[in-house]
Amino acid sequence: MEKYQILIDRDNLATVVDDWMYHGGCDITLRIAKTKGCRVIETTNALYAARMVNYLKVAKKVNIVNQV
Q1: Would you give the DSSP letter of residue 67?
Q2: Is the C or the N end of the chain the one with fewer CB within 10 Å?
Q3: Could you list the pLDDT tens digit for every one of the 68 residues in the chain?
């Protein structure tokens, strides 16, 4: 199973949370990033991760971690 870690600006966090409430249908985890002024959103749902990257265009960086 893959976990998607998406780095976004703090200013875009509200956009993602609003979209997730209406279209998400998956679990997400929000946490503070080491990069100043940024947050990390973690999800295992590939379709919602792709939505954040391609449709919402909020991703600064994406990291994919394989979980065993």
Answers
A1: -
A2: C
A3: 899 999 999 999 999 999 999 988 899 999 999 999 999 999 999 999 999 999 999 999 999 999 87
Euclidean distance between CA atoms 63 and 42, whole angstroms: 9
If 0-12 CB within 10 Å is exposed, 13-18 middle and 19+ buried, where does residue 7 land?
middle
Does residue 43 sit in helix, strand or coil? strand
Q: Which amino acid is at 49?
A: A
Neighbour count for residue 54 (Cβ, 10 Å): 9
Integer CA distances (angstroms), 15 to 1, 11, 27, 59, in order = 27, 8, 16, 12
**Distance of alpha carbon 42 from its chain centroid, rounded?**
5
Residue 13's closest CA among 36, 1, 31, 34? 31
